[in-house]
């Protein structure tokens, strides 16, 4: 074997050894992160928000002095158990596809006589949104362990899920980002945070089944609407209007792709 071939062989051997070491270090780091996440599951502060949300659900409020206990989340008036696992979905009374938060606003307006505008316009850290985050924690918690059953069949559901798919891949903003920039390929990470491949059933389940979630880093309960809003912010897009069709379309795309997976809400994140 001539010197050139010896040199190439030595280079390849060093490259393979270096890659093997790098993958071993990565795997070790991911194991540590997995152990950290597992430890977080014990005593999830989201339980406190669930309790607050249950109180908000059952306490009469608004001009009509009524509770939300007759709210129809898609399974009939007052049925909460398993409802979140079937959202977003089409509702005939509003003639639109709604996610949990938009449906809650409908019930607050019709049952309690509340004006939804202050809830829509408030920042995510203001009291009106805190109510929505707590209600989301409560309702989603009653679907924990339930298989997702989101299978678009109504024409408006089919149109909305297609809109969500197109939005997921749409590139724009100052950096030509899209949702797919971070979530459009397998095996990607950012700062040791794994980024699920949303177009796959497994990836969509990873991204959908654990939201809403308590965020340890900020000490806050985040709903799915807040999570999507923050993704827009990080893409340097204009932040979407709360419970707009854009946010619901993305939610429907994820939920439909994840259909069949088991809900783990409310989750806990770093």
Report on the architecture of this protein.
The protein is mostly helical. Helices cover 50% and strands 8% of the residues. It has helices at 3-40, 46-58, 100-112, 117-121, 127-141, 155-169, 179-183, 201-208, 224-234, 245-257, and strands at residues 89-91, 96-98, 188-190, 193-195, 213-215, 220-222, 267-269. A three-stranded mixed beta sheet has the order 6-5-7. α8 (201-208) packs across α10. The longest helix has 38 residues, at 3-40. The radius of gyration is 22 Å and the shape is globular.
Strand and helix order: HHEEHHHHHEEHEEHHE
> So what's the oligomer here?
single chain
According to DSSP, the number of beta strands is 7
Structural class: mainly alpha
How many helical elements?
Answer: 10
Low-pLDDT residue intervals, each spanning 5 or more residues: 4-24
Q: So what's the overall shape? A: globular
Radius of gyration, whole Å? 22 Å
Features:
mainly alpha; two-stranded antiparallel sheet; 10 helices; 7 strands; globular
Architecture blueprint of SSEs:
Elements: H1 3-40, H2 46-58, E1 89-91, E2 96-98, H3 100-112, H4 117-121, H5 127-141, H6 155-169, H7 179-183, E3 188-190, E4 193-195, H8 201-208, E5 213-215, E6 220-222, H9 224-234, H10 245-257, E7 267-269
Parallel strand pairs: 5-7
Antiparallel strand pairs: 1-2, 3-4, 5-6
Helix pairs in contact: 2-5, 6-10, 8-10, 9-10
């Amino acid at each position: 074997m001539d010197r050139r071939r010896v040199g190439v062989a030595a280079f390849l051997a060093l490259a393979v050894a270096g890659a093997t070491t790098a993958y071993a270090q990565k795997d070790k780091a991911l194991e540590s992160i997995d152990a950290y996440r597992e430890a977080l599951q014990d005593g999830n502060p989201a339980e406190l928000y669930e309790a607050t949300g249950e109180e908000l659900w059952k306490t009469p409020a608004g001009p009509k002095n009524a509770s939300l206990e007759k709210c129809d989340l898609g399974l009939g008036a007052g049925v909460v158990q398993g409802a979140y696992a079937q959202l977003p979905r089409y509702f005939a009374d509003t003639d639109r596809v709604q996610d949990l938060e938009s449906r809650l606003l409908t019930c607050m307006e019709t049952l309690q006589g509340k004006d939804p505008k202050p809830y829509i316009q408030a920042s995510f850290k203001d009291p009106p949104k805190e109510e929505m985050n707590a209600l989301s924690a409560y309702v989603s918690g009653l679907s924990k362990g339930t298989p997702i059953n989101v299978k678009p069949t109504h024409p408006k559901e089919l149109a909305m899920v297609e809109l969500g798919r197109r939005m997921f891949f749409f590139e724009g903003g100052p950096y030509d980002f899209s949702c797919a920039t971070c979530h459009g390929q397998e095996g990607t990470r950012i700062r040791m945070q794994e980024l699920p491949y949303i177009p796959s059933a497994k990836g969509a389940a990873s991204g959908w089944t654990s939201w809403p979630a308590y965020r340890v880093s900020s000490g806050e309960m985040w709903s799915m609407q807040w999570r999507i809003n923050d993704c827009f912010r990080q893409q340097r897009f204009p932040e979407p209007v709360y419970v707009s069709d854009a946010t619901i379309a993305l939610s429907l795309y994820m939920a439909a792709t994840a259909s069949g997976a088991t809900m783990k809400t409310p989750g806990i994140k770093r």
